[in-house]
Design goal:
Structural class: alpha+beta
Helix content: 25-40%
Number of helices: 14
Low-confidence stretches: none
Largest sheet: 6 strands, mixed
Oligomer: single chain
Number of strands: 21
CATH topology of the largest domain: Rossmann fold
Strand content: 15-25%
CATH superfamily of the largest domain: HUPs
Mean pLDDT: 90
Shape: elongated
Length: 445
């Protein structure tokens, strides 16, 4: 099937209508063809047309490429947004992966509700992606490769050229007299994708000319299978509570394959990066370990812990901050993943407001030996015992903000954030109080 603007319009009409179509414009062949064709279809589109260019600063000609994109957009009367990003991978990080992350961060900020980001990947890109995923041992989700259209922020991300190969795009560009940028890094066969593109795919296509079409069909089959597995995992998750934590029992009663998909679904629902396969295996093994153990399995950007028959998934927590003072009306960030602490005036709630002096209240963290009497209880006990009785997860016990007064009450615990105020410091009905708000903290118990 040869490429034409009419075929592109047919593809777009099968996608959700958008208030604006924002083309990711690199200046290469693919995005140049996409923008040129869309400019000719402008009167047929449901929304405005605009372009986005991201300069990664990785090539000495990057500024010239930006100027080329600006010139193209000026000729087509298409508004262009250009963004410069810094790409500095840490040790062990992939330059390509970090550049992609920075690029998509720009896309997420630029795409507004109801808009559609259009990327110019084509059928040969899809073939490369499928093969790379297969060589990495990916499951059906990875082998689904690149979807044609998916929700993105509050809009959509679409790839309307996936039904066309590069040769079709080149042929149409030739008829239009288009010029484009050739990134010299695309010739570096030291990169896996380029090695496939230049060394492997020509041989595959010589033997199987329809390889791109047939592999695209296989990717669609994998996408359907992935959606089915996702629906099954969501059903299993709902059956077992659909909460922030995952009962270990769910992993014990389900077949191992379903248990793995359930864990992936739960971890993704928590907004965390998915673990590699060997980490999923480790989580299953640790979850079924002896009840008196509280194991932790971690990977880049996330960790899973077990306590009291439940699994907890979260970002790795920082250590507790040092001691500080907190005044009413102010908020204090405790570190990524630990939330923010504030004191809010409230009648009859929290601790007595009279306990707060001009310097505010002192906030510290467990050092051992603390004792208190929660409001409504008849006797004092070590804080350690209260936390055990309340089933507070072990990894947060040393990160609980402890609220102390000043002067005469300096050494006396007034409240434990997220749990209770202590006697005799709790505000009585009708008495001015300070409610202790700890927002964004991980599950405590």
């Amino acid at each position: 099937m040869s490429f034409s603007p009419d075929r592109l319009l047919e593809t777009l009409r099968g996608l959700p209508a958008a208030s604006c179509y924002r083309v990711g414009l690199s200046g290469g062949l693919d995005s140049t063809v996409l923008l040129q064709a869309l400019a000719g279809l402008r009167s047929e589109l449901s929304g405005e047309l605009a372009a986005l260019h991201v300069d990664h600063g990785l090539h000495p000609d990057a500024s010239r490429w930006q100027q080329h994109c600006a010139g193209l957009c000026a000729r087509l009367s298409v508004p262009l947004e250009s963004h410069r990003v810094q790409v500095a991978p840490a040790a062990g990080e992939s330059l390509e992966a970090v550049a992609r992350e920075r690029r998509y961060a720009v896309f997420r900020q630029a795409v507004h509700p109801g808009e559609m980001l259009l990327l110019a990947q084509h059928a040969d890109d899809q073939l490369e992606t499928f093969l790379l995923q297969a060589l990495r041992g990916a499951g059906v989700r990875g082998l689904a490769a690149m979807p044609e259209c998916v929700p993105f922020e509050k809009g959509w991300l679409a790839r309307p050229l996936l039904r066309h190969g590069r040769t079709e795009l080149e042929a149409w560009a030739g008829t239009q007299g288009l010029t484009w940028i050739e990134d010299p890094s695309n010739a570096d066969t030291g990169l896996d994708r380029n090695y496939l593109r230049h060394e492997v795919l020509p041989l595959l296509k010589a033997r199987w000319p329809a390889a791109a079409d047939t592999v695209a069909r296989a990717a669609r089959h994998c996408a359907e299978a992935a959606e089915t597995l996702k629906a099954l995992a969501a059903e299993d998750w709902g059956h077992h509570g659909a909460g922030e934590t995952l009962p270990v029992l769910a992993l014990e009663v389900l077949p191992e394959a379903r248990a793995r998909h359930l864990m992936r679904h739960w971890i993704e629902a928590r907004g965390l990066p998915l673990p590699p396969a060997h980490k999923l295996t480790e989580i299953l093994l640790q979850a079924r370990a002896a009840e008196d153990r509280n194991p932790c399995v971690d990977w880049a950007g996330a960790e899973v812990r077990r306590y009291g028959g439940h699994l907890y998934a979260q970002r790795p927590l920082p250590p507790a901050p040092g001691e500080f003072r907190l005044r009413p009306g102010a908020a204090r960030e405790l570190g990524e993943g630990l939330g923010a602490l504030s004191l809010v005036p409230a009648m009859g709630e929290g601790i007595r407001a009279a306990l707060c002096g001009s310097e505010g209240l002192r906030v510290a963290f467990r050092s051992g030996g603390e004792s208190c009497r929660p409001a409504g209880h008849g006797h004092a006990r070590p804080l350690k015992k209260w936390l055990q009785e309340m089933h507070v997860v072990p990894w947060l016990r040393d990160r609980l903000p402890l609220i102390y007064g000043e002067s005469g009450a300096d050494g006396e615990l007034l409240a434990v954030a997220g749990l209770f105020a202590c006697e005799p410091h709790a505000a009585r009905p009708g008495e001015a109080g300070l409610r202790i708000e700890w927002r964004g903290h991980p599950p405590l118990a």
